[in-house]
Specification:
heterodimer; A: 150 residues; 7 helices; 64% helix; B: mainly alpha; Rna Polymerase Sigma Factor, Chain: A; 10 helices
């Protein structure tokens, strides 16, 4: 029997690097994806869009700060004024003659709304609307259960 | 909005899959089906079984994607799942039943050849293909004789061209251990593949005299 020398490092490297990659049979990906659950539960904390959350929270805090600085003198009176105004509005609604036409009804309500909408109330409503939209967008995004889709 | 997923890095595609996009999952399978299947096939030595275990690997990866830490390379994580799946299977059955010549239960040579690991270049002549096939078989056979941990190190290093760090990540071993495994595996392979080398003329002289 003829003795052999061991392969050199370079020869071995060349042989190993020549090893081919083998391919699975056709349709492998389809078979894999058929076994992956189409809807996977994702924890709530992962469904919350944190960047949007931070951006909207910053906006809300900034608007709140502007509101406090601008209306700080009225802040203590604001709830009382708001409730008082709403009470007056509802009381006046009972005095409206409901048989009147739509235009007359509009003209009867709008002048009663006017005194209620002071700048501080408008600002508070805007602030509340932004907060509500913010909460709705976050909750809407978080409540969506992702499914595998093309 | 349509994004060309082929241009995205693995981490970005993983985020799409986490968000439920099937296209992302399909892209990851496209990228790694061959590397994963090749690794598993060379660990278990049976095409059908390797295909099942490779499928299990991807399914397990996609269903446990929440536990994937993005500081680890996705490929390392995937290879780790594949390696563990194959090694778990090998532990459950006798390694003597492994065959790189194809299906050990085949009744005919043709049936056995269906599952055999034979590297082939479609442009080569029949003679070249025969030589390459025999050479390839001997290399595959030698690699198959390595213990699974050595085999995975060798395959990840030379077939998948992974760094020592990536192999260490994949096998959850210290880099020093990976280097030792590779060194020992190479020594074993050099001995096993020695017949491929031309006989040493000096030794032949001595033997002849």
């Amino acid at each position: 029997m003829t003795p052999h020398r061991r392969l050199s490092d370079a020869e071995l490297d060349a042989l190993l690097r020549a090893l081919p990659r083998h391919a699975p049979s056709v349709g492998f990906a389809d078979r894999v994806l058929a076994r992956v659950p189409l809807a996977r539960p994702v924890p709530l904390w992962r469904r919350i869009p944190w960047r949007a959350f931070a951006a909207l929270a910053t906006l809300e805090v900034a608007l709140g700060a502007v509101f406090v600085v601008r209306f700080h003198e009225e802040l203590f009176h604001l709830p009382g004024r708001l409730f008082g105004g709403l009470g007056a509005l509802f009381a006046s609604l009972f005095r409206i003659e409901w048989e009147t036409t739509g235009r007359e009804l509009f003209l009867a309500i709008v002048p009663r709304l006017g005194p209620l909408l002071t700048p501080s109330v408008v600002a508070a409503l805007l602030l509340g609307t932004v907060g509500a939209l913010f909460a709705m967008s976050i909750l809407g995004r978080a409540s969506r259960v992702p499914t595998l889709s093309r | 909005m349509s994004t060309d997923l082929t241009t995205l890095p693995d981490q970005a595609v993983v985020l799409l899959v986490r968000d439920g996009r099937e296209a992302g999952a399909r892209e990851l399978v496209r990228r790694y089906e061959r590397p994963v299947f090749s690794l598993v096939l060379r660990l278990v030595g049976d095409r059908a079984l390797a295909e099942d275990l490779s499928q299990d690997t991807f399914v397990r990866a996609f269903t446990h994607l929440d536990s994937y830490k993005t500081e680890l390379k996705f490929s390392s994580w995937l290879f780790r799942i594949a390696h563990n799946a194959a090694v778990d299977h090998l532990r459950r059955r006798h390694p003597e039943t492994l065959s790189l010549d194809g299906d050990p239960n085949a009744a005919t040579l043709e049936e056995a050849a269906v599952g055999a690991i034979v590297p082939a270049d479609p442009d080569a002549s029949p003679l070249d293909r025969l030589v390459a096939s025999e050479l390839g078989e001997q290399i595959e056979r030698a690699v198959a004789r390595l213990r699974p941990a050595y085999r995975t190190c060798i395959l990840l290093r030379y077939v998948e061209e992974r760094s020592y760090e990536e192999i260490a990540e994949t096998l959850d071993l210290p880099i020093g251990t990976v280097k030792t495994h590779l060194h020992r595996a190479r020594l074993e392979l050099q001995t096993l593949l020695a017949p491929l080398r031309a006989p040493d003329p000096d030794t032949r002289t001595v033997v002849a005299s």
